[in-house]
Amino acid sequence: MIQDDAIPMLEPVRLPAHIKALVVDDDGFQQALVSDVLHSLQIDDVTVASSGASAVTLLNTASPPFNLLVLDLCMPGMDGFQFMDTVAKLGYMGALLIVSGQKAEVVRAASMVAQWRCFHFLGALSKPLIKQDLERVIAQAQAAR
Question: Which of the residues bear the PTM 4-aspartylphosphate (predicted)?
Fold first, then answer.
């Protein structure tokens, strides 16, 4: 897990009772892993996108809207930073969790951007993803309801 001691959390993030998740990652293995963990937590409404551009299209057409984004930072075309910028301009109001293999300082910068963009920021996890870390982050946000 990325150390988040330099990233102050403004308030606990709460997930709604029904979670509609969008996993944005160009790696099929990571998509499957995150989806499987979410399903194991009784989050059955999970969609995957292999690029930032396809995720934006899904966000624009989803009804009801997604309320949880699980985002990789390093993707071809639109990277995670560009994706956050675009999604913020679209008015996305849900939760965001970063899952990335980038260096800690890059993830820390992305975490700050996520908070500046006023996302409901759940935190940042490093790759390779440890199932228990993702379970813990989601469970904490669900318990905060």
Answer: 72
